[in-house]
Amino acid sequence: MKDILIGIDAGTSVIKSVAFDLTGRQLAVAAIANRYETLPGGGAEQDLAQTWAGTAATLRQLSDRIPNLASRTAAISVTGQGDGTWLIDKAGEPVGKGWLWLDARAAGIVEEIRARPDDRLRFEKTGSGLAACQQGPQLIHITRTMPGMLDGATTAFHCQDWLYFRLTGERATDPSQGCFSYGDFRERAYSDEVIGVLGLENLRHLIPPIVDGVSHHVGLSHEAAAATGLTAGTPVTLAYVDVVCTALGAGLYDRKARPGCSIVGSTGMHMRLATAPDDVILNADATGYTMCMPAPGVYAQMQSNMAATLNIDWVLGLAAGVLSSQGISRTLAEMIPLVDTWIANAEPAGMIYQPYVSEAGERGPFVDANARAGFVGITSRHGYGDLLRSVFEGLSFAARDCYAAMGPMPAEVRLTGGAGRSAALRRILSAAIGAPVRTSTREEAGAAGAAMIAAVSIGLYDGMDACAAEWVDPLLGTSEAPDANLSAVYDRTYPVYAQAWQALRPVWRSLQDIRKH
Q1: Which of 109, 235, 331, 512 is the residue whose CA sits 20 to 30 A from 129?
Q2: CATH of 4-250, one of 3.40.50.2000, 3.30.70.20, 3.30.420.40, 1.10.10.410
Q3: What are phi and psi of 260, to 5 degrees?
Q4: CA distance linking residue 207 with residue 62, whole number of Å
Q5: What is the rounded distance in angstroms from the CA atom of residue 464 to the CA atom of residue 247?
Q6: What is the pLDDT of residue 437?
Q7: In the chain, where are the structural domains located?
Q8: In the prediction, which pLDDT does 265 show?
Q9: What is the pTM of this model?
Q10: Closest by CA position to 193, among listed 148, 256, 284, 126
C-alpha cells in the first residue's frame, strides 16, 4: 500500500527529507548538514554535487527509519532555498558552484537598475523588488565580471530546480521562483518586458520552462532511484520555493481568514495572503516579493528581513562570550531559558535596536546592502537585559515595518520558525503588530508544504483548500491576543524606529565607503 508522502526541504545549512502519512501526520525526519563558503566581495557559494549527495543521503537515511519506504511511497516533492544561480551544462553537470541568496556581489547592479525609470515596469509585472540575491542581477554580474563561466552553461537553476533535475532529468522551475525572477505574476508566465528591463535577452535560453507541481509530476529516474534507494517511476513534483511551502504548511493559505504569516528563522519572512491579482498591493518603494501560491489566482505577498534570529544569536553570543572568558561554558541553547527573565525585568522600548546584523544589509521593506545594526538611545542605566529586550523589539518593529509596506496590519498572524517557541517574542511581536498570534505546531512546515503540493498533484485532494483543512488547521495553536498597554507603548515607538533607519541610510553608505578604502 502506498501510504507515505516525502517532502524534501533543501535549506542553506541543512537538507531534510521528511515522511508524512497521507493525512499529514509526520512519521520521520532525516537531516544532513550542508555547507557553503563566503568569498571576498560578498560572495556566497554552495557546491551543487555536494547538495545533491546530501539530499540523496537523507532519502537513504529515511529508508532506514521507515520499513519498506520505497514500496510505500506515493510521491516525492522537493522545495529549497530561494533565489540564487545554479548553472549546469548540456550534459547536466555543474558549471562552477551555485550562487546563494546570501550573495551580495550584484548589489551595485541592483542599485543601477533600481535607479532607472523602467524598473517600475519590471516591478509592476513581477510584483517583486530587485535585490542582489536574485538570479537576474547575479547573471548580469557574471556576464560583466566572469563571462567565461557562461560559455558551457545551458540552464540556470535555483537550488530546488537542480535537485528536481537530479531526481527526474527534467529541466524546469516553479511558478513562484520563475515569476518573481522574470515573469508576470498575473499570468504565471515569463515576461519578455521583464527580461528586457534586465537586459538578459541574450541569456533567455538559460531560463528553464515553468511547471506547476500542483498539476505536473514525472517519475523518479532510474539513476536517482539507485542513488536514493527509492523506486524508479515514483511520482516526483517540483514544489514552490521554500518560503511558500513553509507558509503553506504553517497556515497562510486560509482564504476565509486571510491571515498574515511570519517565519522567524535565520531570516524573517512576513507575508499576507492575496486572493486575487487585484488584491496584490504594490508599494511606492518597489520592494517586497509577490509569489504565486499553489492555487489559481492566489498569491503570497512578502517582505523579508535579511536577518531575524541571527540578531538573537548575536546578542546571546555576547553573554556567552563573557561567560566563556571566565571559564563558564554556556551554549546558546542553554541560555534560551534565561531570556524570558531578562526581558521581563527590562523596560519596554527603553531604546531602539535596528536588526540589520547581516553583512548583506537589508532587503525589506527597504533594500540597502549597506544597512547595519545598531542601538539608539543607550544610557548608563541600561544593562544587558535592556539590550536583549531591545533586540526582540527591533525584530518585532521590523516585522511591523514589513506588514505596513503591504497594506493594513493583518487581523491575525500565524507564526512559525524556531523563535516562535519563545513566549517573550510572541508577546512582543503581537503587541508591536497589534494582532493576535497563533503558532503552528507543525515541526517541518516547509517539507509539509512541499508534500501537500504532491498530495494534490497525485489526486489525494481535489484542491489545496481541502488539503489545508486536514494538514494545517488541526495544528494551529490557540490565539494569543496582544497586551493593550504594551501595544500602546509600541504604537508610540514604532514611528521613531522607522525614522531612525531612514535617517541613518547616508551614514551606512559613508561607513561602507570608509571600509572600501
Answers
A1: 512
A2: 3.30.420.40
A3: -90, 165
A4: 33
A5: 13
A6: 92
A7: 4-250, 309-410+490-516
A8: 77
A9: 0.88
A10: 126
